[in-house]
Amino acid sequence: MLLKTSQTKFYSLLGAFALAGIVHADEPVTPPIPGVAAGGVVIELIKSGFKGTEGPIGFSDGSLLFTETQANRIVRVAPDNSVSTFLENSNGANGLALNPNGEIIAVQTLNPKVGIIYPFEKQKVLAENFEGTAFQRPNDVVLDKSGGIFFTDSGTRPSKENPNPPASHPGVFYITPAGQLKRLANDIERPNGIQLSKDEKTLYVANTQGEHILAFDVGADGAISNKRNFAKLDGWKEEDKVWASGADGLAIDDNDRLYVASNSGIEVFTSKGQALGIIPLPKKPQNIAFAGPEKKTLYAVGRGDAYKIPLLAQGYKGRAK
User: Fold this and answer.
1) What pTM value is reported for the model?
2) For residue range 271-287, what is the model confidence (pLDDT) as tens digits?
3) How is domain 45-310 classified at the architecture level of CATH?
4) What is the 3 state secondary structure string of 39-100?
């Protein structure tokens, strides 16, 4: 209790410094969100210029790992903000997960598949197609306590480089602890970030094109039911004549609050879907994760940038993501 009180006073002091002008006006700072963020705490830019920024997770040594998708590697950020390459030739790894054995499971985009990519001697393909149809853009992943793997495939979409891509087959999938692949949903426009509640009875899915974060009840066998709109996103807006929320990466804290990377920044919701506030960033975030020795820091990556945000809230320690 003393530590928590001291931390709260520390962040409040930083907020006072910001109000007094000691924090430079051009530095982004947190808004006050009760229990989550003290107002005026500097959002620290770790580094710019990354080529694709996705899939952050807290690693076992207290560092942060995230994927630099276009550079085909995984990057490590140490607690002192030093940046190094953790793994080259990641097969375009996007979302990452860490199992209890210390193995990194990645959804991979160059040769689309899901599997173990680290350590080298444990590399293994877990799934690369569903009923003969190859995955298109595996996007994000989260593990349950039984060893099951939930992941999304966001499908294809037109781009300047490929204005007429193959027909899109987006979906939400589950690999059982025994290795059986199941498709859980194929009716979401663009499934992206995926996350479990602390008790693993609720699965959250970010639909980048939609106005709401979706929630499902999770059965003992990984099956999902009771699809519903969990939280309405402030990021829902029109850009280039297309409406989208930009909903992407998801994280939870130890109070089961849900954090969403969206067009508006990092939106924070209670476990009931009530909006608590938004942490704006200079660039749209793509994915987020709690990391550090006590998971008291929220990291955000997106559009080539990586940030760290000291919070009052503590990330959930029950799993890496």
Assistant:
1) 0.92
2) 999 999 999 999 999 99
3) 6 Propeller (2.120)
4) CCCECEEEECCCCCCEEEEECCCCCEEEEEHHHCEEEEECCCCCEEEEEECCCCEEEEEECC
